[in-house]
Amino acid sequence: MQIREDDLTGEKIADFLREHLENMHEITPPESVHALDLEKLRSPTVTFWSAWDGDELLGCGALKELDAKTAEVKSMRTATTHRRKGVASKILEHMIQEAARRGYECLNLETGSSPEFAAARALYVRHGFEYREPFGEYIDDPNSVFMTKKL
């Protein structure tokens, strides 16, 4: 598996992210969907990575800088055919290492509270994230959980 910074111009990643957004809207009420679209992922405050095996897209993840000491994990997604194979763990480990290298003191994230997000929540707990209150512009929402990891 090769994890590389992605400029978000490829057709495969655009399709993958479109599918991600559609899936989020299928399982989450619209007001609780916080996934970023392609244009918002191209923000200068966001660094996006994709994971590949040859020309096969395995997954992705992003870091959004909130301030000089804090970043947010965004757009974590694994291709359906590659789930439960460690792809998300490798991407998350890569992002945690990069966040530490950049000097961030903590990583925050928002994810869903429904059963569909149980694997994601378990992944974050395994990597040292703990539950916390809403942060930034998020509000308390029964469809969301918030987590943080000190670096």
Which class in CATH terms? Alpha Beta
Compute the number of structural domains. 1
Number of helices: 4
The biggest sheet, with number of strands, parallel, antiparallel or mixed sense and barrel status, is: 7 strands, mixed
Rounded average pLDDT = 96
What attributes characterize this protein structure?
151 residues, alpha+beta, Aminopeptidase, 7-stranded mixed β-sheet, 4 helices, 30% helix
SSE diagram, text form:
Elements: E1 2-5, H1 11-27, H2 38-41, E2 46-53, E3 56-67, E4 70-78, H3 87-101, E5 106-112, H4 118-126, E6 130-132, E7 144-150
Parallel strand pairs: 4-5
Antiparallel strand pairs: 1-2, 2-3, 3-4, 5-7, 6-7
Describe this structure in words.
This protein is α+β, with helices and mostly antiparallel strands. It has one domain: Aminopeptidase (3-Layer(aba) Sandwich). It is 30% helix and 33% strand. It contains 4 helices and 7 strands, in the order βααβββαβαββ. The protein has a 7-stranded mixed sheet, sandwiched between helices. α3 links the parallel β4 (70-78) and β5 (106-112). It is globular.
Could you give a quick summary of the protein structure above?
This protein has 151 residues and is an alpha+beta fold. 30% of the residues lie in helices and 33% in strands.
